[in-house]
Amino acid sequence: MRVDIRQPVGPEAAQAFDTAQLRERFLVETLFMPGEIRLTYTHFDRLIVGGATPTMEALALASIRETGTPGFLDRREMTVVNIGGPGDVFADGRAFPLGHRDMLYLGKGVKEVRFASAEKEKPAKFYLLSAPAHKEIPSRLIRIGDAKRVDLGARATSNERSIYQFVHPDVMESCQLVVGMTVLAEGSVWNTMPCHVHDRRSEAYLYFGLPESARVFHFMGEPAETRHLVVANEQAILSPGWSIHSGAGTSNYSFIWAMAGDNVDYTDVDMVTMEDLR
């Protein structure tokens, strides 16, 4: 497995970054490589963001030095979202079949995790999100049809979208993670605007479902000192608590959002008015 490390960045430092530095610190460009597990360990709430892309053989999630524990999930919880072809996740010998856009929660204490694709010609792409955990919660498979769906926005404002809440207080218990998926309707390109910050939690975004030639302009930074990153299909953004997180694409798209921090209150945000954005 390959592990990349991202150190924390404060808002004052980010103000002076050029495009290359912003991308180096906040953009995860390569998550899904055939036959590999790739992880990014960030010191923003110690989130781990990664991708597992099994092809011919199953891939095992090994322990990593960065967690300081014998097993990867000894003191962590994790969600696995499949954005590729059908596949299976094996957790301590139990098989969980994941279709496209299904999600699996793995609780603290799971010892052995393996990822496999059902079809080598159409491999699964397992998006991994992990955060420290303080107690054991049973593993649970939540299919896209079983997630709580909330429809928001309108075609007139180019933000008609459906939010699927997977790991959420209204759906299931977790220690830190709050995870969901937003799917924009055809003709809609804006997400999360008006924007907000939540200084009590860090967040990660995975943009996917984009044509290869399309891009999302992800807006970040303090409300009065915004920056942007140009994001391609299947790339992720690390979003610190002090930063806004909003985007507009050249086509409609989907994204997976995941938060970890002091609480699991989905509505605990500080809204930013349009007049305050700079």
Write the layout of secondary structure elements.
Elements: E1 2-6, H1 11-15, H2 19-26, E2 27-28, E3 36-42, E4 48-53, E5 59-60, E6 76-82, E7 87-91, E8 94-98, E9 103-106, E10 113-117, E11 126-132, E12 140-142, E13 148-152, E14 161-167, E15 178-184, E16 190-191, E17 196-197, E18 201-208, E19 216-222, E20 225-231, E21 235-239, E22 246-249, E23 254-261, E24 270-271
Parallel strand pairs: 1-3
Antiparallel strand pairs: 2-21, 3-4, 4-11, 5-10, 6-9, 6-11, 7-8, 7-10, 9-12, 13-14, 14-15, 15-23, 16-22, 17-24, 18-21, 18-23, 19-20, 19-22
How would you describe what is shown here?
With 278 residues, this protein is mainly beta. The protein has a single domain, classed as Jelly Rolls (Sandwich), CATH 2.60.120.10. It contains two helices and 24 strands. The chain has helices spanning 11-15, 19-26; strands at 2-6, 27-28, 36-42, 48-53, 59-60, 76-82, 87-91, 94-98, 103-106, 113-117, 126-132, 140-142, 148-152, 161-167, 178-184, 190-191, 196-197, 201-208, 216-222, 225-231, 235-239, 246-249, 254-261, 270-271. It has a seven-stranded mixed β-sheet with strand order 1-3-4-11-6-9-12, with no helix packed on it. The protein has a seven-stranded antiparallel β-sheet with strand order 2-21-18-23-15-14-13. A hairpin with a 5-residue loop joins strand 3 (36-42) and strand 4.
